[in-house]
Amino acid sequence: MPLTNKEQTLIEDNLNAEYLCVRKYEQYAAMASDQNLKQVFTDLANREVQHVNTLKGILSQNGVNSQNIFESYNKPQGDLSNMQNNLGITDAQLLNDALSTEKHVSSSYNTAVLESVDPNIRKQLQHIQQEEQNHAEILFKEMQSRGWYSVK
């Protein structure tokens, strides 16, 4: 079953979000001062690359050649944690922004899941959405363990 116009648009929108997540997490891994957070952001970036590949695969299998402005960029090189002081950004702010991003991305997948006609595509999108929710949980736990997210 070919993609509907709506499915294609939703998948392309989510692909944009995934590319932004990859870029953001790679940048945050370079900028974080805490070594554990550097690894958390690196792991999340790698997982988001898998989502990019899944979405590109869906588009490709349906004859859509997706050209994305976010696809190529210069990946951050080395430790950029010294930039935090110059920019006035803390590890807490990096985590908070990442968590907000995951909330947004998960919500975007919710719409895509609910508006997909093809059950196979819906299942793939549901799987990615669940992984995005897992990413949010990882970030939440990192914040909570450091006292940066109170649930009171």
Automatic annotation (TrEMBL):
<dbReference type="InterPro" id="IPR012347">
    <property type="entry name" value="Ferritin-like"/>
</dbReference>
<dbReference type="InterPro" id="IPR009078">
    <property type="entry name" value="Ferritin-like_SF"/>
</dbReference>
<protein>
    <submittedName>
        <fullName>Coat F domain protein</fullName>
    </submittedName>
</protein>
<dbReference type="Pfam" id="PF07875">
    <property type="entry name" value="Coat_F"/>
</dbReference>
<dbReference type="InterPro" id="IPR017022">
    <property type="entry name" value="UCP033860"/>
</dbReference>
<dbReference type="InterPro" id="IPR012851">
    <property type="entry name" value="Spore_coat_CotF-like"/>
</dbReference>
